[in-house]
Amino acid sequence: MPPMVHPIDLRSDTVTRPTPGMRRAMAEAEVGDDVFGEDPTVNRLEARVAELLGKEAALFVPTGTMANQAALGAQLVPGDEILCDEGAHCINYEGGALAALSGVQARPLRGDRGLLSAALVAEALRPETDSFPRTRLVEVEQTHNRGGGRVYTLPALQEIAQLARAHGLCVHLDGARLWNASAASGVAARDFAACADSVSVCLSKGLGAPAGSLVAGSRELVRAARRIRKRLGGGMRQAGILAAAGLFALDHQLARIGEDHDHAQALAAGLAEIPGLSLDPADVETNLVFARLTKPGWDVPRALAALRAHGLLAGDGEHGRLRFVTHLDVPGDAIPEAVRRVERALA
Ligand SMILES: *Cc1c(COP(=O)(O)O)cnc(C)c1O
Question: What is the mean pLDDT of residues 19-23?
């Protein structure tokens, strides 16, 4: 392996770089002070995403973490409890924000590779007494990251939403990869979003924007989220420069997102043949590929280092797994080469 080989970066769909067209759109963006509500590009993006998600309003925030936490904070008070899968992003990968910022506790449920069911939620409902925390919200992740990019079917989500509403619970949909779920299922984002009171979506994952997420919901919810955004230091000024990247991504990079799923399928099929890795390509529904490391005597850090030395960057998928993510900056013809590099690294 020549030392200067250009690495294929499959660590995350966040590693994409803005394309020349996107950079042009950013440079030319019309801007104003968004804390005054006067950035026309931010306003256009918020209206566009609210429309896409079938909600009254949306709010532009810097990150998916802030989107989730602003949405949750807008609907909860200290001492409340939420129900979510034990692998949920909002309780595992957001620095303890739910407890630290909202004073809320989570009751993690063991979903089916990340996915909850109405039955599982029903089992977790508590009677109202002075002792129990008040369960106020069900959080679902679409697609589910640690579940391997799995997609809730629309009926499964509707059933959870129905049950939640019947018991006075809100639903938050962490849709960091909601676009992937739509592409994989053919279900419109707004139909998934209709199952939830609040929805967060990311522009910086499959869509390929450099930064930015949105929270969508009722006007009242978004007003509350806006206050939390300010409190968290997320009120940006001429944020239209970033919003322009998001609009560009929706115009030019949303329709192609299914290609990442095709690439993930090809990658999974290749990886499944490699001794030392174990995965079932049928488990791959979107752009995330998790493979269990079965090479005797090896652990994940050693495998990742070997991959890196062979020009392939992958991520720690936890629980003895490697995570490979396909995205905009990995063209289809790079996949066979990626598989060859993994094969050589693990030989
Ligand atoms: C990436 C991600 C987020 C938000 O991440 P940020 O890095 O804060 O933008 C939220 N939820 C899920 C499921 C994610 O994968």
Answer: 97
124 CA → ligand 1 middle, Å: 26
**Yes or no: is domain 20-252 CATH 3.90.1300.10?**
no
Q: Name the superfamily (CATH) of residues 8-16+256-345.
A: Aspartate Aminotransferase, domain 1 (3.90.1150.10)
Residues of the chain with CATH 3.90.1150.10: 8-16+256-345
The pLDDT score that the predictor gives to residue 221 is: 98
CATH 3.40.640.10 residue ranges in the chain? 20-252
64 CA from centroid of ligand 1 (Å): 5
Give the distance (Å) from ligand 1 centre to CA of residue 100. Answer: 18
Mutate to test the pocket of ligand 1, among 15, 92, 101, 145 (most ligand atoms within 8 A of CB): 145
Q: Would you say residue 1 has pLDDT above 90?
A: no
Give me the helices (H) in the chain, please: 20-27, 40-53, 64-75, 89-92, 97-102, 118-124, 154-166, 178-185, 189-193, 219-231, 240-252, 257-272, 300-309, 335-345
Q: What is the mean pLDDT of the chain?
A: 97
In this prediction the pTM is 0.96
